[in-house]
Amino acid sequence: MKSQQTKDHPAYFTTSIFRRFQDQIHQWYPILHSDFTFHFFESKAAGFPYSTISCLSLLVAAIASLVDDRPHSSHYEAALSMMPIAIQECSITSVQCLVLFSIYCSCLLQPRQAYDYIQAAFLKIQPFLNRCAIICIRSTPSPAASNLTCIDG
């Protein structure tokens, strides 16, 4: 017998959360990779272990709850408990976490906290942007670019 996904079914609830985020938030702030859907469901199935992927997944759920006018979310509290790993880790996922923390605070009209999170994300992404600039300069075949000196830092 084939089970139908009703509003009470956990899979429907998870799909609904992700769809609300995609429809209402991601179209304005497209910061998630296309593979994130897989990571979101995988993280939920594993019980949201302590990781930046789980933090990101919980923030997606928390922001989706704001779309439903539910300002307090246990998802946000759980994501907030994972903030140390988002601050400590140097990865694109940790930058995405900080951006989503900022979006969450913006939605709650907390501009100071939103600014703090987006500033932290900006500082955290600088090494990635510097590496990209160095790679672009080194891969440019123009004669003018060959005179440039790259400093790896």
Question: Looking at the chains present, what oligomeric state does this protein adopt?
Answer: single chain
Low-confidence stretches: 1-13, 145-153
Structural class: mainly alpha
The percent range for strand residues is: under 5%
How many beta-strand segments?
0
Secondary structure elements and their pairing?
Blueprint: H1 10-26, H2 36-45, H3 52-67, H4 74-81, H5 83-88, H6 92-107, H7 111-139, H8 143-146
Helix pairs in contact: 1-3, 2-3, 3-4, 3-6, 6-7
Could you please describe the fold and organization of this structure?
- By secondary structure, this protein is mainly alpha-helical.
- The protein is built from eight helices and no strands.
- Helix content is 69%, strand content 0%.
- The chain has helices spanning 10-26, 36-45, 52-67, 74-81, 83-88, 92-107, 111-139, 143-146.
- The chain starts with 9 loop residues before the first helix and ends in a 7-residue tail after the last helix.
Q: What would a concise description of this structure say?
A:
This protein is mostly helical. It is built from 8 helices and no strands.
Any descriptors?
153 residues, mainly alpha, 0% strand, disordered N terminus, disordered C terminus
